[in-house]
Amino acid sequence: MESVATRLQLGVQQLGAVLDPFRTVRSASDVPLWRGKIGSVQLEFVPHHFYVQGMVIVLAILYAINSYIGRWRNRQAVRAFTEVYTEALREEFALVGAGDDTVLVWNGAADAMLFASGRRGVDTLQATFKLSPRHDWIQSIGFPLYDILWLPATPTQVQDRVTLTFRLPRNEKQALGTFALIDKHALQRVRHKRYDLLFAKVADGDNASSARSLTEQMAIASENGDLTDRFLGEAGSRGDQQRKQLGLVEAMNGPGGRFVESFVVTDQPEVRPVSANIPSVDRIALTMRLPRTKSEAQQTLPVLAAVLDVVDALWLASNGRNSLLQLRPETQASLKKTRNEIAKVLEAEVLEGLEKDEKEDRDEARRKAQQEKFSKMTPAEQAKRKQVEKRRAQRKMQQSQTVRQR
C-alpha cells in the first residue's frame, strides 16, 4: 500500500511539472503594456482588460470632434445670409445687432438671433435662426428615425430656417386681423398647434391663388375676405392696381418666393393664452428656408422690401394717411366682435379652472382632516370605521351594477 501511494504522489508531481509551463504562458493580448509599483502595491496595465473603457473614450473624442465641426458648419451656414441682410437692414434700421461688431447672438450651437430697431412703423425686428443639430449626431440620427418609425403629425427633423418677426406699434383703435401666405408643402406643419392661425381659413378653391395672380405654390389663409382683397387685391383684373401698388404678389412670384415658407400678419399670439387679458401684439412674421449663398440671399431681398412696404402701408393706414390697407368699417366691427367673444370664452375657462382648483383644495383639506381624525381613534374604532367604509363601497357598487342592468 505504501509503495502504491508513493507512486501516485510521484505521478502527480511529474504531471504538475509537465503542465506548469502551460499555466505560465500568456497570450499576446495579456502581455502588460506597463508595470510599476506604488508603495508596496505591484501594478501592471493590460490594455486588453480595458477595451470597454477604451471604446467609451474613443466615442467621446469622436463626439467632441463632431460637435466642434457641427458648430463650425452652422456658423458657416448663416454667414452668407447674415452678410447680405445686415447690409440691407442697416439701410432701413438705425440699430442692427448688439451695438458693436457682434451682429448675431448665439444660443447654443443651433439657435441664433439678429436684432434691429429704429425704423418708422416697426418697434423691433428679431431674426431668429433655427438650424439643423449638426453638432449632435444623436439628434441628427434620432430625429429622422423617429419620423420614419412613429410618423408624427409634424416632422421633428429640423431644417435650416430663419424667421423675421416685425413687431408693429400697438393700435388700440383698430384690429389687424389674421392673414397668411403659406407654402402648400409646409401647410400642415406651419399651422400645427398655432393659435393665431386658427382665426384664418385656408382658401381651398382650385384657382384661389391664380385668381389673384399669385403662384400656385402659395396657399391663402385669411380671417376675412376684405383682408385678402387688401393684401392681394380683388380676384381678376379689378385687383391689378392694388397688387401693383403693394408689390407683395410680385415679390412672392419672383425668384425669392421659392424660399418663403410662410408670411403671417396677425394681432394674436402664436401660443394659446391662458388668461382673458390678451395683449394686442400686432406683428408680421416672415419664415424662409435659409439661403445658402450670397446670390440666393440677394434673391430674397425683394421679399424683404415688399414686407417693409406692407409695414409702411399698415402704419400709414393706422394714422389715417393712406387707405391702401385700410379695412372697411364692417370688417373692423366683425374682427372686434370675434376678439370679444374669444375673450369671454377664455375668461369662462379661467373661472372654471379656478373653481376646479378650489374644489380640489377643499377635497384635499377634507381628506387630511379625515386622516387626522382616523389616526386619533382607538384600534377598535378604526376597525369599526373600516367596516362602515367597506359596506358603503359595496352598496355603491351594487347600485351601479343595478343601473347598468337597467
UniProtKB/TrEMBL annotation:
Keywords tagged on the record: Membrane, Transmembrane, Transmembrane helix
Subcellular location: Membrane
Highest rank taxon of the organism: Eukaryota
Record field: compositional bias (Polar residues): 396-406
Biased composition (Basic and acidic residues): 353-375
GO biological process: endoplasmic reticulum calcium ion homeostasis
Stretches the record annotates as Disordered: 353-406
Membrane topology: Single-pass membrane protein
Molecular function, one GO term: calcium ion binding
Residue spans crossing the bilayer: 50-69
Name of the featured protein: DUF1682-domain-containing protein
